[in-house]
Amino acid sequence: MTINFEGQVAIVTGAGNGLGRSHALALAERGAKVVVNDLGGARDGSGASSDAAMEVVRLIEEKGGEAFAHGANVAKFDEVEDMVKQTMEKWGRLDILINNAGILRDKSFTKMDLADFQLVMDVHLMGTVNCTKAVWNIMREQNYGRIVVTSSSSGMYGNFGQSNYGAAKMAVLGFMNTLVLEGAKNDIRVNALAPTAGTRMTEDLIPAEIYQLMTAESVTAGALALCHKDAPNRMILCAGAGGYASTRLFETNGIFLPQAQQTPENVIAQWKTICDINNQSELETGGKQTEKFLTKAITYVQSEQ
Ligand code: NAI
Q1: pLDDT tens track for 278-296
Q2: Does 144 qualify as catalytic in the annotation?
């Protein structure tokens, strides 16, 4: 099976550098028309320039592909709407959105200004929300859409100095979980990528010899696997240095305590059983958790009657 994107239109945010650049080039190489979005600021989000995005467009066109650059700041909905409007005017459809744009404002929580917390949330979380909102009805109406959100191990597992970034990166997974449910009937599939790669975002954190193993292209292979016609739905794909894995959220079966026994002491006494991973399950919706607890409670009440 060869994956191709002939006849499809993709928006890749933050596509002037690093992972987004690599995703955009690979999508174009396989036939997609690509909107190369990039604000062109520095790693901390300051400044703006169209140079990087224009260079990616040039590379795509050089190989016979079609692309245009758009400098929308993903944190600003009106600018994102303009980008989507221009895409529809030019190509008349929109099949793929890869939410990739991002910045860093690392500091320990003790030293972090709330403004830096807010900005990182605005770019990563609201940027993802804005772009998805702007394409959502188009995808619904055409009964087809593939959306990728970019998460991070920092969000899923934590990383010192990244409370803002980690919060935003976990938030996009919550966003995905509900979109998966709401988009299903219109064949809109939403997946998450949790990358690790040598880019300007990580260049001062990774030694040079290791940096070379952590190519953007190795992550892009995973990104394309998440946004083609037969893509999965709700997958969290972790990708880096040629490694591919999936993070999954399971809930233990847990215990049931009758009302008279619902005390903190009894909860603590049962930690081991509450956390026992035998019989854990992956829940499809939040409601399934309520259902699980109520089934146990009702069974107990009936057994007492
Ligand atoms: P990068 O800094 O090389 O590229 C990010 C791009 O996003 C830049 O070209 C920048 O101009 C653009 N951008 C930033 N703010 C923007 C805004 N408001 N509107 C439009 N464009 C904007 O970073 P990299 O490493 O390629 O990161 C891409 C994504 O992958 C980010 O979401 C990042 O958080 C995520 N990620 C990267 C990891 C890594 O190891 N490189 C690890 C985990 C997640």
Answers
A1: 999 999 999 999 999 999 9
A2: no
Closest to 147 (Cα-Cα) out of 130, 157, 156, 135: 135
C-beta separation of 34 from 18 below 8 A: no
Q: Is residue 34 part of a domain?
A: yes
Helices 77-91, 127-141: axis angle to 10 degrees equals 30
Output the pTM of the full model: 0.97
Residues with Cβ < 8 Å from 205, sequence gap 6 or more? none
Q: What tens digit of pLDDT does each residue of 133-151 get?
A: 999 999 999 999 999 999 9
Burial (CB < 10 A; 0-12, 13-18, 19+), residue 147, is buried
Q: Which domain holds residue 15?
A: 9-246
Q: Cα(298) to centroid of ligand 1, in Å? A: 49
- Provide the pLDDT for residue 6: 98
For residues 114 and 120, what is the distance between their CA atoms, to the nearest angstrom?
A: 10
**Are residues 16 and 98 both part of a single domain?**
yes
If one residue of 12, 39, 76, 238 were mutated to test the ligand 1 pocket, choosing by the most ligand atoms within 8 A of its CB, it would be 39
pLDDT at 206 over 90: no
- Residue percentage of the chain with pLDDT more than 70: 100
254 located within any domain: no
Flag whether 112 is in a domain.
Answer: yes
Residue 116 and residue 164 in one domain: yes
Which atom of ligand 1 is least distant from the CA of 153?
Answer: 43
Nearest CA residue ID for atom 35, ligand 1: 150
Please check whether residues 146 and 184 belong to one and the same domain.
yes
Could you tell me if 145 and 292 lie in one domain?
Answer: no
Residues with CB under 6 A from ligand 1: 13-14, 16-20, 37-41, 43, 45, 52, 73-75, 100-103, 123, 127, 150, 152, 195-197, 199-202
If one residue of 19, 76, 148, 211 were mutated to test the ligand 1 pocket, choosing by the most ligand atoms within 8 A of its CB, it would be 19
Q: How many domains does the chain have?
A: 2
E strand or H helix at 236, and its extent?
Answer: strand 236-240
* Candidate list 157, 165, 244, 300, residue with the active-site label: 165
